Amino acid sequence: MEESVRVRVKQLAEAGDAALPAYASDGAAGADLRAALHEPLVLTPGARALVPTGLAVELPAGYEMQIRPRSGLAAKHGVTVLNSPGTIDSDYRGEVKVLLINLGSESVTISSGERIAQAVIAPVTKAAFVFVDTLSGTQRGEGGFGSTGRD
Ligand SMILES: O=c1ccn([C@H]2C[C@H](O)[C@@H](COP(=O)(O)OP(=O)(O)OP(=O)(O)O)O2)c(=O)[nH]1
Ligand SMILES: [Mg+2]
Questions:
Q1: What predicted TM-score, i.e. pTM, was given to this entire model?
Q2: What ligand is nearest to the CA atom of residue 86?
Q3: With a cut of 0.85, is the ipTM above it?
Q4: Contact 48, 41 (CB under 8 A)
Q5: Of 20, 25, 27, 85, which one has the greatest count of Cβ atoms within 10 A?
């Protein structure tokens, strides 16, 4: 897959040599993000932690970075991204952090350099929100939350 968007990445001094987000295969949608830790982090069952990556990014205007879970971590250990997908705004210049939660029944140790999540770069549509008095009619109308397929 050809790279079409340039994302400037800054290594944060205190994190040392944090690695660039990297695509694990040619067609990977997400670039893996690694933990940047001074010491291993223990996530007890039910615990959550905002895990630093040691990186700050400059996304082009009109794009976001989505922080998504890695299915391997979720399937093996029950560790996922609590606010999935996390949103990195194009004007954010702080450290990219990953909010992990351990939904498993055993403690999980996250080591520095471990791949903890994946970043998907996606275009953003910016809407103009306007108040109106009436909305157009549709077959669905106000039905939702499982309203279809009933007799
Ligand atoms: O998983 C995440 C989610 C967010 N952020 C950073 C980048 C993002 O641009 C900023 C704000 O995120 P969000 O809009 O989701 O949080 P908020 O609670 O609405 O905070 P704010 O008022 O700062 O927008 O926090 C992360 O580093 N990791
Ligand atoms: Mg916000």
A1: 0.95
A2: 1
A3: yes
A4: no
A5: 85
